[in-house]
TrEMBL record:
PANTHER family assigned: O-ANTIGEN TRANSPORTER-RELATED, PST FAMILY PREDICTED COLANIC ACID TRANSPORTER
Keyword field contains Cell membrane: yes
Organism for this UniProt entry: Phocaeicola coprophilus DSM 18228 = JCM 13818
UniProt protein name: Polysaccharide biosynthesis protein
Places the protein is found: Cell membrane
């Protein structure tokens, strides 16, 4: 029992840092969209470059985070030696990556579409290399059960990043007009996108200093036999991770290349990426649920073949996903201010992107079957199929229909692998999911959504009040059907 309580506490801290961190990162979206006009396509540049870095980060970490945990927890291995070898491998791979990129910086920049700005690519090469190396000390903190330091570093980095962005994108332009001499020696008002990358590089570099205690006292000499076993173990995880991240980023990587006019592609990508951030509120809801529920599920897994728990996990995930969907769509009059008004034309994709997020969450819940049966190759198969569908539909439809097609491509990709995982999983590891109950919630949510969208209420406050009533109807059904108030801690004290 004490172990489960400790797990729950640590998970809450990790979850809070992640969710709060993601929320704070979202606060940069209004800033970026206000400073970077939609017609300039500059926000599209930011989205495009960060999509590449997300893919490269997975490659450079090489699945060594999981490999570290696997070998550090073996009684036959010295955890510090495993940690040192993980650092040596990821650090060496990152260093080779940096050297090669700097040697061929100009052709790489031209290939990616930024021949005039190799500095963008150079900065992000350094950022992704440092981030990759720092993934191992972060894993070591988790291994040592030090969630406070883990969360503190993460939040410090994000707060610092926000402050630097405010400095470069708001304060410096103001000073350039009112006190030019103070900033003229370093500030260029035309270099706005570049300063976003500068801020990232500064904070990633500063973050390294927090890991000095974790880098001391190690034997910086590779154990070839151990390292070979770790690489062999981690390589399949690398492939799985690369395909998984491609599902999330491939559209943003190829988007500018799908148009004859690259600038038009960047403009549309910027609008799509910015308005998709509104839909990412769904990701915060679902991530919060996952952090809260995963420890319970895995705690229950100590009981043999507890399939009822996995069915319940799916049901409650789906319920809260529907609730999150309605909340976002009903309060769009407020949430749209997350982006500047010249990006609002892209808000039509919010519901579609949230649909993709819901499928992604359902797929995550379904993934228990191949993890529990040790048939993780199915995860790779599903990811490859999803990636292929998303890539093909983007190439086929985006040049004609723009970012709406890209959003629907994600729905199609994740929807297909969700269905495949369900039907194959029912043969491999049957779980009796409460499909009828979930269908009722789906129909109710759809009906309330249609009513909320179709009933015309011109006054914004009245419209929000009306939609709040609709949302409360959904909440009331949840309470009546599946979550009675007497079952909720704290609240149950006031109910006799």
């Amino acid at each position: 029992m004490a172990g489960l309580k400790s797990l729950a506490k640590d998970t809450a801290i990790y979850g809070l840092s992640s969710i709060v961190g993601r929320f704070l990162n979202y606060l940069l979206t209004p800033l970026y969209t206000e400073v970077l006009a939609a017609s300039s396509g500059k926000y599209g540049i930011v989205s495009n470059v960060y999509a590449y870095t997300a893919l490269i980060l997975v490659f450079l970490t090489f699945g060594m985070e999981t490999g570290f945990f696997r070998f550090a927890n073996k009684t036959t291995e010295d955890p510090k030696k495993v940690y040192a070898n993980s650092l040596i491998f990821v650090g060496g791979l990152s260093l080779i990556f940096v050297v090669l990129c700097f040697l061929f910086l100009d052709p790489i920049s031209s290939l990616l579409g930024y021949p005039d700005h190799p500095d963008y690519i150079a900065m992000m090469v350094l950022v992704v290399a440092l981030d990759s190396f720092q993934c191992i000390p972060f894993a070591y903190l988790r291994y040592q059960k030090r969630p406070i330091k883990f969360a503190a570093i993460k939040l410090f980095n994000i707060v610092g990043l926000i402050l630097l962005n405010l400095f470069f994108l708001l304060l410096c332009p103001w000073l350039d007009v009112h006190a030019h001499s103070l900033v003229s020696w370093f500030y260029d008002p035309e270099y706005l996108v570049g300063y976003i990358f500068v801020a990232n590089l500064i904070m990633t570099s500063v973050q390294m200093f927090f890991f000095i205690p974790e880098l001391r006292g190690l034997v910086w000499r590779p154990d070839k036999a151990l390292l070979k076993r770790m690489v062999n173990y981690s390589f399949p995880i690398l492939i799985f991770g690369l395909v998984g991240i491609l599902n999330q980023t491939v559209d943003k990587m190829i988007y500018p290349f799908l148009f004859e006019d690259r600038q038009e592609g960047l403009v549309q990508l910027g609008i799509y990426s910015a308005t998709s951030k509104v839909a990412m509120v769904m990701a915060m809801f679902t991530q919060a649920f996952r952090y809260a529920y995963e420890p319970f599920v895995f705690g229950k897994s100590r009981n043999s073949d507890d399939r009822g728990t996995y069915a319940a996990a799916m049901k409650y995930f789906f319920i809260f996903s529907m609730l999150a969907f309605l909340a976002v769509m009903f309060y769009m009059d407020l949430l749209r201010y997350m982006v500047a008004s010249d990006y609002w034309e892209g808000l039509s994709v919010v519901a579609i992107v949230m649909g993709a997020e819901i499928f992604k969450g359902i797929y995550f819940n379904l993934s228990f079957w191949y993890k529990l049966t040790d048939e993780t190759q199915w995860g790779a198969y599903f990811s490859l199929i999803g990636c292929g569908v998303i890539l093909a539909l983007n190439i086929w439809l985006v040049p004609t229909y723009g970012y709406v097609a890209s959003a629907w491509a994600s729905v199609a990709g994740y929807g297909l692998i969700t269905l495949l995982s369900y039907f194959i999983g029912q043969k491999k590891y049957p779980v009796k999911y409460p499909l009828k109950d979930m269908a009722v919630y789906l129909v109710l949510a759809a009906a309330l959504f249609v009513v909320g969208q179709e009933v015309t209420v011109s006054n914004v406050i009245a419209r929000l009040a009306f939609r709040t009533v609709l949302l409360l109807v959904f909440v009331a059904y949840i309470v009546k059907k599946d979550l009675p108030l007497k079952s909720i801690p704290v609240i149950n004290r006031f109910i006799k």
